[in-house]
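so the lab meeting is tmrw and i was supposed to have these ready like two days ago... anyway. pasting both below. for each one the top line is the aa sequence and the line under it is the structure tokens. i havent really looked at them closely yet so no promises
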Amino acid sequence: MARTILITGGGTGIGRALAEHFAAHGDRVVITGRRPGPLKEAADALTGVAAAVCDHTDPAALHRLVAELPERLDVLVNNAGGQTDFDADGATDLASYARDFRANLDANLLSAALTTRAVDDRLAAGGAVIHIGSIAADQGSGSYGAAKAGLASWNIDLARTLGPRAITANVVSPGYIAGTEFFRDQLADARREHLIAATATGRPGALDDITGAVAFLASPAARHITGQVLNVNGGAYPTR
């Protein structure tokens, strides 16, 4: 039976790759995001994928989204987020620091919590909630790393809450993944080489590495895996 899958931040990068993967395997997919252009492009290009514009940090927007969703959701992938303060440029005034810190918490932690809460009564028994975390949760990256660490911690409680309904909740935590918008074309060659050198595999991650991990956690083979963080980072370790 075809499943219904909601993927937030599904217009580009990891989210789009996930939509393509699940749709190719016969699932019905709904992708969301804040930018209508990439969403429409992805939905037009992928058979079996519908799109809806939504800011997942906005409760009112989530109420509107839920009204458009199917009554049953088998898989929720909380992928929306990303580093929000690339342009902070080391601002030292307290108001700017608070603004930038809250922006990362909202984008990467609150968005997942609000979305999961909004669709809670539509999550089907035997389903899965999967969040996209980050290696930054373990290796540090300011407010972004703090938000992703908070996501992993919050997920433990979510797994306990959803477990009696036979719904799993896990985090897939990527390292450096090539071919995404995460670094906004600002990753210098030296930094890229540094990230690759930190891996045991000697290569950057690929989108297929993440889609494979998410697909596994959404599959019948992973029904007794919950409350976990699956690191997909090539064995990366901190380097100086």
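ok protien two:
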Amino acid sequence: MPKMLRSPPCDTLRIASNPELASNITQRENKRRRTSDADSETEIVSTDAINELKTMLETFVNIQNTRLDNIEKKLALVTNQNVIIQQTNSEIEKSINFVSDRIDNLQKDVSNIEKDRKALESQINTINTKFDALEKYIRKTSIEIRNVPKIRGENRETLFKYAHTLITNLNVSMEQKNLRDVYRLPSKADATSSTIVAELGSSLHRSQVIDAVKRYTKDNPKDSLNCNHMGIMNVKSSIYVSEHLTTKSKRLYFLARDIAKTMGYSYYWTSNDNVYLRRKEGDPHILIRNESQLSELKILSD
């Protein structure tokens, strides 16, 4: 079968018959080809930009993830620290509560101790009062003679003789048998004189001797009692005769004498182991019972 020839397309015929048309078609083809190349280039550029943007985004995301990881770590650390702080605060609170309870217990103990101290102080004051009363009773017949020289070789008989000679020279009628005891109080070894205590037969005898001393002092202002009045010759040092006061009364007398000198009291004296003050002649006397009373007098005088 003979090969059939296919007739060319109409465009081909038209191009063949019309050279200008062929030229236009060629231009369009070239233009289409350039446009296609430009699109390819644009597509390549767009792909590079996208890849670069993706890389930037990935880098940004990685940086942010790193930062978030660091923040999470720090938050975890802070959380752990807060837990530790809470535990520490809890321990501190327990310790404070424990210490507070201890303080409360100590305050109770101190309160109980204070009560016991006051009760003990009251008992001591009661004992001291009773002891002072007993001491006054024991000493109610005694006198003391201060500043008596120590004589080598003296003995108990000598001391009795000193006391009886003094009482006789004071014009007090008293037999030697009414001297129950005479003794020296302890003193320093190197002291040249000390105090002699004479226990008389009764408190009446003591009062008679003390009154006689006061009369002698009043009648002989320029000639005080001295060792010669006790029969100690060749020594004329002054001697001082008074009641044999208790320790408490001696202390009160010492303080009362200081108050009298500084606060303008004209008279201070002792009688029957009691201490008295009087501001001036005609004023009532003040019986000093304790040191607190003297403190109050000092405050009132100020």
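from a quick look at the 2nd one: Confidence is low (pLDDT under 50) at residues 1-7. The first strand starts at residue 142 and ends at 149. will dig more after coffe
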